[in-house]
Design a protein that fits this description.
Blueprint: E1 10-16, E2 27-30, E3 33-38, E4 49-54, E5 68-70, E6 90-95, E7 98-102, E8 108-112, E9 118-122, E10 154-160, E11 166-169, H1 176-183, E12 201-207, E13 210-216, H2 231-234, E14 243-249, H3 258-272, H4 274-277, E15 281-286, H5 293-304, E16 309-312, H6 321-332, E17 358-361, E18 367-370, H7 372-380, H8 386-398, H9 401-407, E19 415-418, E20 421-424
Parallel strand pairs: 1-5, 4-6, 11-13, 11-14, 14-15, 15-16, 18-19
Antiparallel strand pairs: 1-10, 2-3, 4-9, 7-8, 7-10, 12-13, 17-18, 19-20
Length: 427
């Protein structure tokens, strides 16, 4: 049973674009005049598979229930030169910030970075040509048609990385969620126990005419960079942020040392990624209004006041938050905007482009032709039809197979194997 309350940020799905429809092999017929001429239409193109970034989605949970997506197949061509209907496209909605990879190679296909971004993921197969398309001056009545192009299944990895300007970090129960709810319209779950937050929460923080997006990252603990606690699952969500807001409980009411807590969290950041550790940080010393916090504030400022901007706040009543927001915005003004992950722009699961082939000599001395060209010919050639075989021979010459055989030193009556067809070579 799948827990619907579990935050899901990494899933594997299977996709398949639609197969092309077969071309029609048919002939006109009139009363008293059967088979007056070819009139078979082309098959329809198979449907494409698209991805669409949708900001209304928060995680990838829905893909744990449905993980296979198949576009519609093209319809077979009709008589009277009528083309078959194209297969229906399928559009897969994903959260903004979803990075898409090929599962086998781990190649980054795209980063669904902005709301409304649309990416062609897999092209549908081409429809086959009807027999009317194979008429020539010498071939008046071709008794064959082309099969539609078949497509393959592909496995795709979806990985969500939260896009935010500011990542709010700190130990559990230091007041990160409370602070986010105070400075934005976000309403995260808040309770007075550790690990209340089990998923990143986003909030838009207004600052006069401007705004920035802040993300409350679930509490880190010592050892998070090695997989301890929840931190290992959520450290990657900080990678997209421009800067960090480090919330520290300065009250000491849980017997913790604020200076040591700050050092430990930064050690975990560095253990996960040096790039994360080098992000600009603004420090919010929370719970400054609690009795006894004053001495901890002094000690903290002495330790880190020269390197970082430090703000004393009380998240629960909003004290000091306006100054904190202003300070964050001052830092953001000097930082470049968040950028999408670099992807291979040309990567799409495409239909077969140029038909290729290879030739090798087997142990019996036969010349064996393999490749996508052969696959196409095997689907379309009828061994019992002279016109179809003539088409077969024509394609072998046009695509350079005969020239390659000659270059390899083939002799008259040597055996050539092309798929299921075996014949003696005659130049």
């Amino acid at each position: 049973m799948i827990d619907k309350n579990v935050f899901t940020d990494r899933v594997r799905i299977t996709i398949k674009s639609g197969d092309g429809g077969d071309g029609m092999n048919s002939f006109k017929s009139f009363k008293g005049k059967p088979a007056c001429g070819p009139d078979g239409g082309d098959g329809g193109k198979g449907g494409d598979v698209y991805l669409l970034a949708d900001r209304s989605m928060n995680d990838l949970l829905s893909f744990r229930f449905t993980n296979k997506y198949v576009a519609g197949n093209g319809e077979r061509g009709g008589t009277n030169r009528c083309s078959g209907k194209g297969g229906a496209d399928i559009v897969i909605k994903v959260p903004v910030g979803t990075i898409v990879r090929d599962y086998e190679t781990k190649t980054i296909i795209c980063d669904m970075f902005r709301d409304g971004d649309k990416k062609l993921l897999a092209e549908g197969g081409r429809g086959g040509k009807g027999n009317v398309r194979f008429t020539t001056a010498r071939r008046h009545a071709p008794n064959f048609a082309q099969k539609g192009e078949k497509t393959e299944e592909h496995i795709v990895l979806l990985e969500l990385k939260v896009i935010a300007d500011v990542g709010i970090i700190g130990f559990p129960n230091v007041g990160k969620s409370t602070l986010l709810s105070k400075i934005s319209a976000a309403r995260p779950k808040i309770a007075n126990y550790h690990f209340t937050t089990l998923s990143p929460n986003l909030g838009v923080v207004k600052y006069y005419e401007n705004s920035f997006v802040a993300a409350d990252i679930p509490g880190l603990i010592e050892g998070a960079s090695q997989g301890a606690g929840l931190g290992h699952d959520f450290l990657k969500h900080i990678e997209r942020t421009r800067m960090l807001l480090h919330v520290v409980d300065v009250s000491g009411i849980e017997g913790r040392d604020p200076v040591e807590d700050f050092r430990k969290i930064n050690a975990e950041l560095d253990g996960y990624s040096h790039k994360l550790a080098e992000l600009p940080q603004v420090i919010a010393l929370n719970k400054c209004d609690i009795f006894g916090a004053e001495e901890n504030v002094k000690a903290f400022k002495k330790a880190y006041g020269k390197k970082h901007k430090i703000y004393c706040i009380s998240a629960i009543d909003g004290e000091g938050t306006e100054e904190l927001i202003a300070g964050i915005f001052d830092v953001l003004k000097e930082l470049p905007p968040v950028q999408p992950v670099e992807a291979d722009e040309s990567f799409t699961y495409r239909r077969s482009g140029d038909l290729d082939f290879e030739i090798y000599v087997d142990d019996d001395g036969a010349y064996v032709v393999v490749g996508s060209l052969v696959d196409m010919l095997c689907r379309n050639v009828s061994l019992n039809d002279p016109d179809s075989m003539a088409y077969f021979q024509k394609i072998l010459r046009e695509k350079g197979v005969i020239s390659k055989l000659n270059a390899m030193g083939i002799k008259e009556k040597d055996t050539v194997v092309v798929g299921d067809v075996e014949f003696e070579f005659v130049n």
